[in-house]
Amino acid sequence: MSTALVILAAGKGTRMDSDLPKVLHKVGGAPLLHHAMLSASALEPARVVVVTGHGADQVEAAAHDFDADAIAVRQAEQLGTAHAVLQAREALAGFSGDVIVLYGDTPFITSDTLEKMISSRKQNDVVVLGFDAADPGRYGRLVMQGDALKRIVEYKDASDDERAITFCNSGVICAESATLVDLLDAVGNDNASGEYYLTDIVTIANARGLSATAVSCDEAETLGINSRSELAAAEALFQRSKRQSLIEDGVIMQAPETVFLSFDTIIGRDAEIEPNVVFAPGVTVESGARIRAFSHLEGAHVSRGATVGPFARLRPGAELAEDVHIGNFVEIKNASIDEGAKVNHLTYVGDAEIGARSNVGAGTITCNYDGVMKHKTTIGRDSFIGSNTLLVAPVTVGHEAMTATGTVVTKDVPDGAMAISRTDQTNKQGFARKLFSILRAKKAKQAKG
Ligand code: UD1
Ligand code: CA
Questions:
Q1: Are 195 and 295 in the same domain?
Q2: 11 in contact with ligand 1, CB cutoff 6 A
Q3: For position 277, which CATH number holds?
Q4: Is 90 exceeded by the pLDDT of residue 178?
C-alpha cells in the first residue's frame, strides 16, 4: 500500500529569534525541512504535503527544492496541530493509503522507525511514535493500557498522575487517509491552550471502536528544534552520528571530533581524513583518497588515490581524477584535473581543465574573470606550467607544452612549445654592494639625529 506524508511547518519558531523560518535553519548543511523529507523519502511516498504558514513563500521554495512534486498548502492561522493537518484535506483527496504526519522541525526520525510504524499500522488504526523521555518536561504523555494507546494528554491538561508518565509523544502519527481526516473533523479546541490538538484523534478513535497503539524509538530521534541552543545541540548530534557511521564504513579519521560533515558527504573505504577538515555539501571522496589537515571541500569529487591539502580549498565543480595531487594553499573551482596531474603549492585554478600528468608550478593563477565574464583555461596532458605563470583566459596550453617561470600567457601555446614572456635579465656588476653601502650610511646618519 502506498504512503503519503504531511509535514507540519507552519509554526513561527519564536524562540529561534530569527528572520529565517525555523524549518529553514540548517543541520549538516541542509534545512531541517529537508532532513524530515529525506528520512521519509525511503518510504517512496505517493504524495508529500507540506503545511506552511510563517515564512510560507520561503518554506514552499525549500520544499520544492527537495521535491519538485511536493504539494504546499497554507495554514493561514496556527490553530493547532490538528488544524494544521486538516489543511492537507484537499491535497489528500482521492488518496487511499497510510498518511504519516511529521514535523518539519524534527530532523532525526529514521526511515527504519517510519517503516516500523507503517508495519504496525496493519494491525492498528492509529499508530503514534513514542519515546521514553529522560526528562519528560512538557511533552504530551502517552496513556497506555498494555499495547493499547488509550489517549494522549498534553502536559498543560494532564493530572499529576499523568505527568508522572515518562512515555511521551514524538508528534509522529500514522493512520489511513480517510480515517485520519474523519477523526480530525471531530477534534475540538476545548483544552488548556484553546488549540485543535492532533493528539486528540487517539481518544476519538478509541471511542469509535478503532484501535490505537504506540511504536517507540530512541529519544535522540525525536529531538525537535525550538531554539538556537537546541539547533547547536542538533548539529553536534548530527556530526557525531555522521562521523560514527563513516568510521564504521571504513573511513580513517585520527581526530573525528575535528572533522565536519554534511548530510550528503560520501567517503569511501580506506580514505583518510586528517584533522580539521570541513565538508560542505556535495562532496564525494573515493576509496583510498587522502584529505590532509585544514582543507575545505564543497561540491567536489576526489577520486581514488588522490591527495588534497594540507590547507587546500576545493570549491563547487572541482573534479579530481585518480592520483591527482593538490597541495597547500591551492584553490580549485569548476575545474577538472586529470589523472596524475599535480598542483602542489599556492595556486588558483578556476574554470579550467588540466590534462593528465601535467604539473602546475607554485604561484600559478588562472585569470578567469575579466570583471564581467568568466573564461576557460585548458592545459593539455604532460605539460609543465612554470612557477608564477599567469594564464589569462580564455587560453589553451597544448600537450607536452611548457610555460617559463613568470610568464603571462595571453596567447594559446601549441603542443610541444614553450611560452616565455618576461624581460631579459641584466646583471649590473658591483651595483648591489654599492647600493648597500649608500643605504647603510643613510641609516647611520638618521640614527645620529
Ligand atoms: C506537540 C504535541 C505533543 C508532543 C510534542 C512533541 C500536540 C497537541 N502536541 O506539542 O504531544 O509531545 O509536539 O514535540 O500535537 N504546527 C503547525 N501549525 C499549528 C501548530 C503547530 O504547523 O497550528 C507545527 C509546528 O510548526 C511544529 C509542530 O507542528 O513543527 C508541533 O507544534 P508545537 O506547537 O511545537 O507542538 P507542541 O506544543 O510542542
Ligand atoms: Ca514543539
A1: no
A2: yes
A3: 2.160.10.10
A4: yes
